Amino acid sequence: MAEGMAAVTTVAQRSRQVVVGGWRLMRRWPVIPAVILVGIAMMAILATWIAPQGPYDQDLNARNAPPVWQAGTWYEEHPKVQQRYFLGADYVGRDLLSRIMYGARISLQVSGIAALAGMTIGSGLGLIAGYFGGLIDEFIMRLVDAWLSLPFILVAMVVAIVLGQSVAIMMGILALMAWSSFTRNVRAEVLSLKTRDYVSLAKISGASTPRILIAHILPGVVNTMVVILALRLGGLIMGEATLSFLGAGIPSPTPAWGLMVSEGKDYVDTAYWTSLFPGIFIFLLVMSWNFLGDWFRDYMDPRLRQL
Amino acid sequence: MQRFIARRFVFMIFSLLAATMVVFGLSRATGDPLLLYAKPGGYGMSPEQIEALTKKLGLDKPLVVQYFMWLGRAIKGDFGRTILDERPVLQVIRLKIFNTMRLAMGALLWAVTISIPLGVLSAVKRGTFWDYAGRAFAIFGMCAPAFWVGLMAIVLFAVKLGWLPAASMDPLRSAPFSWTNIKYYIMPAIILGWYPAAALLRLTRSAMLEILDSEFIKFARSKGVRETAVVWKHAFRNAMIPPLTMMAVMLGGFIAGAIVIEQVFAWPGMGRLSVDAIFNNDFPLLTGCVLLFACMFVLANFLADIAYAYLDPRIRYT
């Protein structure tokens, strides 16, 4: 029976099935963002082995070398250049592709650690504000409001310049950027959770306040926390890139994408590729996180749509 | 309604007070502000002179007292003088703020004219070309770094094609709405407005989708109302509440965006002024800028809250 069915399916029908099936798969699951994200993550993890050169290897002869498909006679005109630069080279002759690969590490590390730190601090404050209520709640929420009213980029730049620039400080600054949305949403969730019967029962049976918070309320807000984490990561990556571009983020010569765009900007009229490619990767990474975040939110809990 | 406004207003004051504390704390974070004026050694300042300067700047008083002194002066509009050239901070800001406002107005104009029609269109014609065009527009605006888009736009439109000027404002100061003047606004305003436009588009689209699905729209349709009237008269007016209120918040968002855009396009506005202040260690100027940004932002949010409550009475009771 099955064989008979297969026999009457023509090639055209089969290929139509594949297209429709593929389309359905892509609508249901975030295939493209996941592929991009896994690709960038692999680049970051394997950079040491797959990058054609080190991220700091310079060759001043290869300054602003064009990407291979644009090279034309460039390599003949510059016989001293030993290597081939697939995406071209920057203003001191460092291989762009290698720096982009190592830059993926910085981007993912910095944003990931900052997001986790922001999630811990922000959710902690949200738990406290929501559970205790009253003055503590009012104080924490006004703090959130005040924090959100400050122009974040300026504050971050001041902090970076006062404390000095390093990858660790950048993580701290981005954690400061991330915490407030966790506080707001976790608090709102806790406000409804704490009136549930099981929390009252825990209180009656003598559970201590920390125990109620951690064992009974926290599990109820983990969903929200993870969804916000996924939604915020794109913004954090963008924040890191923007600050690095403005010269108050990751210090040179570390390969960070925003910094690479900035380093290329003085040569952009003759060597646009030095700024173009790192920017494309920022775009791809931010886009795939945003898509995954949106999808994840709808998948976990459609009620969270307004987050 | 009056109670709601009063409550919101008190919150606004609290937010601003907390913001001023952060700003003041930041301005003191570099250590002794005295060192900004008088480097130890080098300037030939005698201990007596330093003492006099300390007294003049009020640095001999406790930090809390200093904060209130600073706050008192700031309320009266006295932000002190810039360190770099000793001009009053407010005067320096006044020279730049209108340039930023003009840019923001241009950006707002472009954001609203593109995003609202496209948002409505992509909701009404869901799943068609227009829907996908709208979504692609939104994705690009949300995810492409503004500084990079700006740089690439300069390469393409100014360097390669030579259609538009690469940066800054019109140096000849030609008539306000002449083409030579407008040319300078096109790239920075579009790129500054793209992110807010994307957000506005998404909001318009989802609001329209929600309204178009409601009972009174079905009723209007079954009554035989023409589709254009259903979309524009019945659905659009109700769907506009969230996007309208968001526009106030957007103006606040322009401020943050302007910092980056002005840097890329060498635009002589507030964003560049504050970034220069940071790199020059000019803290009186920087605190003035940050405080002004914070005021505008808080005020915009306050107005948005009120507009929302006015347009949608359900909000007031929650």
In short:
Helices cover 73% and strands 0% of the residues of chain A. Chain A is mainly α and 307 residues long. Chain A has a domain at 108-253 and 289-300: MetI-like fold, CATH 1.10.3720.
Radius of gyration of chain A: 25 Å
Determine the CATH superfamily of the domain at 97-317 in chain B: MetI-like
- H-E string of chain B: HHHHHHHHHHHHH
Instruction: Look up the CATH topology of the domain at 108-253 and 289-300 in chain A.
Output: MetI-like fold
Mean pLDDT of chain B: 80
| Assembly state (oligomeric) | heterodimer
Give the DSSP E fraction of chain A (strand runs of 2 or more residues): under 5%
Say what the CATH topology of the domain at 97-317 in chain B is. MetI-like fold
Computed structural class of chain B = mainly alpha
Arithmetic mean pLDDT of chain A? 84
Distance between the termini of chain A: 50 Å
Radius of gyration of chain B, Cα only, in angstroms?
A: 24 Å
Give the number of helices of chain A.
Answer: 12
Percent range for helical residues of chain A? Answer: over 70%
Looking at this structure, what is the CATH superfamily of the domain at 108-253 and 289-300 in chain A?
MetI-like
CATH architecture of the domain at 108-253 and 289-300 in chain A: Orthogonal Bundle
SSE ordering of chain A: HHHHHHHHHHHH
Low-confidence stretches of chain A: none
Alpha-carbon distance between the two ends of chain B:
12 Å
Low-confidence stretches of chain B: none
> Outline of chain A, from the CA principal axes?
flat
Name the features.
A: 307 residues, mainly alpha, MetI-like fold, 0% strand, B: 318 residues
Account of the protein in words:
- The complex is a heterodimer of chains A (307) and B (318).
- Chain A is mainly alpha-helical.
- Chain A has a domain at 108-253 and 289-300: Orthogonal Bundle (MetI-like fold), CATH 1.10.3720.10.
- Chain A has 12 helices and no strands.
- Chain A has helices at 2-8, 11-28, 31-50, 74-77, 96-132, 134-149, 152-163, 167-193, 197-204, 209-246, 257-264, 273-300.
- The longest helix of chain A is centred in the last third of the chain and has 38 residues, at 209-246.
- The mean pLDDT of chain A is 84.
- Chain B has a domain at 97-317: MetI-like fold, CATH 1.10.3720.
- Helices cover 75% and strands 0% of the residues of chain B.
- The longest helix of chain B is centred in the middle third of the chain and has 36 residues, at 89-124.
- Chain B is flat, with a radius of gyration of 24 Å.
- Chain A binds chain B through residues 142-143, 145-147, 149-155, 157-159, 161-162, 234, 238, 241-242, 245-248, 258, 261-262, 265, 268-269, 272, 275-276, 278-279, 282-283, 286-287, 290, and chain B through 11, 14-19, 21-23, 26, 29-30, 139, 142-149, 151-152, 154-155, 159, 255-256, 259-260, 263, 274-275, 278-279, 286, 289-290, 293-294, 297-298, 301.
